What does this fold into?
Amino acid sequence: MAMWMLLMNKAMAGTFMPVQGTEIAAEVDNLYGFLIIVSFISCAILIGGMIYFANPVDRNYHEHGARLHRDLFTRALAQLYLRPMLRVQMLSSARVSLLHQPGQQRYVAHLLYSPPLKRGAVHVIEDLVPLHDVRVELRLPVEVRSLRLIPDNAELPFERDGDVIRTMIPRMQMHAAIVAEYKR
It folds into this structure.
């Protein structure tokens, strides 16, 4: 059983307080293998391979920007997606994608980091902050023979741990790609 009591920011606490006398998830029975994640404003339950949210977590995060909504969704997703093909250790405004190019016998992981700043009614990118020692894990259904870092075109050292390949990008600024070449 896993349960998280999540905190909310002060502005939201006044808006979404439960009715006086309501008991908030003091104990959760796990007889049926359910996972319940509870907070004052959001609740999710995992039944089989489906997660059900009591509230629109995505809209709440968009409107209020409370980290607890993002964390609630991330933790719930982690309960479903136990063995991701790509895992990176980057800041929350980073973006990643994994492409498969079977004709070239490779996978390409793109990592982007350029945090937007709000200026008036728009978001702009003014500062390209470099990141250092970015950890990357790949779990691919092929035998990887080499990793290259783009745009440097440098060979990346990696280690294998079962079906997981671990590497580290020493430095990246805005964009980096890892090309994982494999044999058939």
